[in-house]
Design brief:
single chain, about 160 residues, elongated, mainly alpha
Length: about 160
C-alpha cells in the first residue's frame, strides 16, 4: 500500500494526470480521489491529495464535500486535519444535514467532540444533533453534547 501511495504521489506531483486530459480532467480526478479517500478513511492518501492542491470544500455531483464525509463516517483524524487547515465546517449535506448532526446520528463521539470544540459555531445545531443521537441510542454522544452545553452555558 505504501508503494502504491508513493507512486501515486510521484505521478501527481509530476503532472502526469494533467498531461492525460488537461487541467479540468486533472482537477476532477483530484476531487474524486479526495472524496473517495475521505469517505473510506485513507488519511495518508488525503494528505497526499491536499499537498497536490485538492479542495476539501468543493462539492461533488451529489452536493457533498470531503468535510461532510469525514464527519458522517467518523474519520476523526481526517476531520481534525481539515479543522486545522480551516476547512468550512458549516456546509450542509445535500440531505440538509449539518456536520454535527451527521456525526451525532452515526454515533461518532470523537467527531462530535472535535466539531463542538472547533472555532466555528456548531451550538446552533446541538438540539438537532442531540435528538438524532437519542433517537439512534448513542448514549456517549448524548452525554457529550449535554455536558458540552452545560459547560458552555456556565462560561
Amino acid at each position: 500500500e505504501d508503494m502504491v501511495l508513493e507512486e501515486f504521489e510521484q505521478m501527481l506531483i509530476a503532472g502526469q494526470y494533467v498531461s492525460q486530459g488537461g487541467m479540468e480532467f486533472a482537477r476532477g480526478a483530484l476531487e474524486k480521489a479526495m472524496g473517495w479517500a475521505t469517505f473510506n478513511g485513507h488519511t495518508d492518501v488525503v494528505k497526499v491529495l491536499l499537498k497536490a492542491g485538492a479542495d476539501v470544500n468543493r462539492r461533488n455531483r451529489a452536493g457533498n464535500t470531503s468535510v461532510i464525509y469525514a464527519a458522517s463516517k467518523g474519520h476523526s483524524d481526517i476531520l481534525e486535519l481539515f479543522i486545522r487547515m480551516n476547512a468550512d465546517l458549516l456546509p450542509r449535506a445535500q440531505s440538509d444535514l449539518t456536520l454535527l448532526v451527521a456525526a451525532a446520528r452515526s454515533g461518532h463521539s470523537e467527531a462530535v467532540r472535535l466539531l463542538l470544540n472547533s472555532d466555528q459555531a456548531h451550538l446552533q445545531h446541538r438540539d438537532s444533533a442531540l435528538r438524532a443521537a437519542k433517537r439512534r441510542g448513542h448514549r456517549s454522544v448524548v452525554h457529550m453534547i449535554t455536558s458540552f452545553v452545560r459547560v458552555a452555558s456556565v462560561e
